[in-house]
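Q: Entry one of two.
A:
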Amino acid sequence: MELNKENMRKIRELILFTALLIVVLWKYEEVLEVLGYVGHLIFPFLLGGAIAFVLNVPMNFIERHLFTEKVRKNKVADKLARPVSLLSVLCIVVGVLTVVIFGVVPQLVNTFGNLGQSITQFIPHAQAWGKEVFHGNKEVVELINSVQFDWDKIVETLIDFLKNGAGNMLNSTLTAAKSIISGVSTFVIAFVFAIYILLQKKKLGIQAKKVLFAFVRRGRAEAVVEVSSLTYSTFSSFLTGQCLEAAILGSMFVLAMTIFRLPYALLVGIFIAFTALIPIFGAFLGCAVGAFLIFMVDPMKALMFIVLFLVLQQIEGNLIYPHVVGNSVGLPSIWVLAAVSIGGSLMGVVGMLIFIPIVSVAYALFREIVYLKLKKQGVDPVELED
């Protein structure tokens, strides 16, 4: 190998990387401590970036439809487009939170109160049914008779547990105050940082491109920009479609359950809307919980709910989901299942949500690489599909 400038640079980089790897492995505890400290410092900014990403999706929608190219020819309108769009999104978020806090939460509290009464009334019926079925088995009958349910006592125990737990965790009013102040300050910093990103996103994007092209070769820099654009479009499409689809599905359940006079319509509808954010498995989890709650009130209505769920699930899967979400992530169903399974195993519910767009981006990039390789070899991809 010639010892020219390029090869010498590669050798120096390899030596530096090897030395750094040895130090990391040798002092891994100190390295982890430093990384934890750095992570604690940058966490507000990471949280702010996440908030900005979520808010940017509806903000772009408002900015694109409210301030069209014709409107933005006016200089004043062009300057006001981004602040007005951001203010509109913040008003929508505040409005939704207000409705949830003052409209939905009180109804959910009442629902949980009625749930305790339903369980209390259901236990004697279940015990009578169990005695009839297992009347020949004394041990099972004794076990059934020993089952007792006192909703008030359970609530009291839960409150005591929370009080004791809070006392053990916080230990003092000072510690509690410090924890609250720390959490509030972290959120305020993250929120202000998110607002700054959203108001200055165009300028920040240009600055990031300048830095990228200044320190990275042009071909690689263009590839990074292309991958970043693909990642953003995939994540935003998935987030928009999934949230809209979940809201529609939850509303359908609330409306249908109210029409058929099924109990816990609001509670079950909201729960299904939240669980529907989890692809594939989420809605079925909501069905199981809803069927269990209704079963304790009326087993026949629980059966009606399951039939209703299957009907609405077919409508949602065949009519709503393809139009609302469609192929927004461009990922075949088998890979969606794999992404959900792997993401759930690694990071739980959050992993299920973020791994679909991540795998979708990787799938799109790999497909593009495969097509380029086939083109270089003179193979037509269409011929291989026959």
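Q: Entry two of two.
A:
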Amino acid sequence: MSYLPHTTKPMSPTPTFPTSTGAAKICIGIIGGLGALAGADVHGKLLRSIAAGGHASDYAVLYEQHPFQGEGRLEGGAPELAGRMLYIYDMLQRYEGAGAHCAMLPCFISHTFLHQLRIELRLPIISLMDALLAALRQNAPAARTVGVLTSDYVLGQRLFERHLEPAGYRVLYPSPQVQRDRVMEAVYGQAGLKAHDRSPGAVALLLEACRSLMAQGADLIVPGTTEIAMIASLLNVAGIPAMDSNQAYVDYALAIREQMPPQSFKIGIIGGVGPAATVDFMDKIIVNTSADRDQEHVKLIVEHNPQIPDRTANLIGDGEDPTLAIYAACKRLEANHADLIAIPCNTAHAYLQRISAQVAVPIINMLHETVHHITRHHPEHRRVGLLATSGTIQSRVYHDAAAGASFELLVPDQAHQALVMRAIYGERGIKAGYLEGECRADLMLALNHLVQAGASVVILGCTELPLLLREDAAFPLGERRIVLLDPTAILARRCVELARGGA
């Protein structure tokens, strides 16, 4: 056996973590309080390893330990998980706000729900189980049968089997009697390691458990609680080939160079412009997502603010400027860790040039995506009609987006544009909640007008219009068939594509 029980040398050269602050230091946060002594042990070993590697000026370490009230145990010895989850979530939020680039969670029980934390949080959490696997491969390449000393709960959750068996390791546990009278007593008993650093009685109990595992054929003992890892050196002195899993975790945190596992992607939506179009856009994201269960859909965060001043009223009249309201909505989505921002409002795109440089999150331009879609999927069409608000048309945002494209953009004449505006804003218009009758008749007249002018593709360039006419590659209009394009559907498909690619 060539296992090295304790090392202060990182497994690879100076690491780099993903950073959004641009700060010179790599900031690692350690969640304390889940085991007061064990958390302090990991903290101390991390500081010593950083110093031993000569990188003290490169790292900042955050370590907070608050009284944790979730150590109570339910019937059958299971830990009370809800309080633990909330405590960890709040601590990680504090660390993220303090500028941490990643976090260490020195608690095997907590790693049974690591996937839930990663879904809800942006801060990368370094996997303790990945660290153990890396240490096994590097420090004990000949070991294939691993004896594990862990809590009843972690044992029952098969945490070690799920991570080690796919890598070719056989996992052994003590007999039920040894598990109860030796392992659990050594950690949780009155004289156990939870309360007493290096308790001689606890060490004696764990030595018996280790020898029982060695008798079963274990090549190596892996502590499956951070408290047992604290006394790994004492087990080594007694002749037990035991890994210091706390040190392995530290080594891995300092060695890992690749990106942390990708966090769940979140699409930010500026809603309320208008309200029904927002719901329609959300539905299109869901419809365009290939998923067999709820958890496979994309996370959405919606800033639904119908009080954003009317865009058209500002562009063609003396209405209040919506720039600040749109910007504030973007910044709120940015603060809530949206990975991209979508605005299901064509007219609002007239204000993007003013704000996009001040928003760190990319805003996906629906108009550019629509022009790209036409160029890619309908290159043979030379005249494209635009049905939109007067604000969108007068701001020429679609004309700017189509500059240099291979098609000519057609808009309605003044009389037919008035019909489009009545279909959207009229007393019986879409914004008033009507989807049939006068509003549809007005829109069809404007559509026919554009087709008569030569348009073979028509953009439904107001997000309310697809509530009346759905996207259709062969929409029947008299004896002709035209292409009706829905920019919100195009935007929804692009957002899903980006979310699936983790862009």
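A: Comment on entry two: Residues 36-52 form the longest helix (17 residues). The radius of gyration is 30 Å.
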